[in-house]
Specification:
mainly alpha, single chain, elongated
């Protein structure tokens, strides 16, 4: 019986609100409301009547070639990655021992 009463008392003590807890003070932090909204207004930057892959983005010749290679890789069953931004995996044999 003592063990049950002790367990109940411990549970009550742990679940009781603590007097040292303070409410969150928002005045210490900047107001970021609306910070992540698009600055431009007007029509969307894409043509909703076209599929995603036919949007005709205004790419430079270099990035148009990267995009075309990515689409070709995806059509062949790949993931469409580009060597321009993906670091290559290093193997232990590639590292020089010191």
């Amino acid at each position: 019986m003592r063990g049950v009463i002790g367990t109940i008392a411990l549970a009550a003590a742990l679940l009781a609100p603590s007097g040292g807890v303070q409410a969150f003070d928002e005045s210490k932090y900047p107001d970021w409301k609306g910070q992540w909204r698009r600055a431009e207004s007007g029509p969307p930057r894409y043509d909703p009547s076209k599929p995603v892959r036919e949007q005709q983005a205004p790419l430079t010749d270099e990035y148009q070639a990267v995009y075309a290679a990515s689409l070709a890789d995806q059509a062949a069953g790949g993931q469409g990655g580009s060597d321009l931004h993906v670091p290559r995996a290093r193997h232990a044999a590639d590292h020089e021992r010191v």
